Amino acid sequence: MCLAVPGRILSIEEADPAFRNGRVDFAGIVKQVNLSYVPDAAIGDYVVVHVGFALSIVDEEEAQQVFRYLRDMGELEELTAEAT
After folding, report:
1. How many angstroms separate the CA atoms of 33 and 43, rounded?
2. What phi, psi does 66 have (nearest 5°)?
3. Which of 58, 61, 65, 74 lies in the 20 to 30 Å Cα band around 45?
4. Which residues fall within 8 angstroms of residue 76, CB to CB, at 6 or more apart?
């Protein structure tokens, strides 16, 4: 299944707004993500990511709720398997 998953922005590379990237933490798994669709996102913000692109900013409470759902459904293990 392909989901949009929330993650917390750890760092941002702002060389060019069209190619704005950052490191995003998904419950301990850190991946490089394109941030060009969320120009107002800052370090520490939570963003919803789908296929490597951050689509929107969400609040921390909503992000944690999604992580609880994913953990309950066993989907976090799938995210961990993709990282290896």
Report:
1. 13
2. -65, -40
3. 74
4. 27, 67, 70
Q: Per-residue pLDDT averaged across 23-35, rounded?
A: 93
Q: At 12, phi and psi to the nearest 5?
A: -135, 135
Q: What DSSP assignment string belongs to 70-83?
A: HHHHTHHHHHHHHH
Burial 71-82 (b: 16+ CB within 10 A, else e): eeeebbeebeee
Q: At what angle do helices 60-73 and 75-83 cross, to 10 degrees?
A: 90
Dihedral sign computed on CA atoms, order 58, 60, 65, 66: positive
What is the reported pTM? 0.78
Six-digit token string for 13: 């590379």
Right CATH number for 5-83 from 2.40.30.170, 2.30.30.140, 3.40.50.1100, 1.10.8.10? 2.30.30.140
Q: For residues 76 and 29, is the Cβ–Cβ distance under 8 A?
A: no
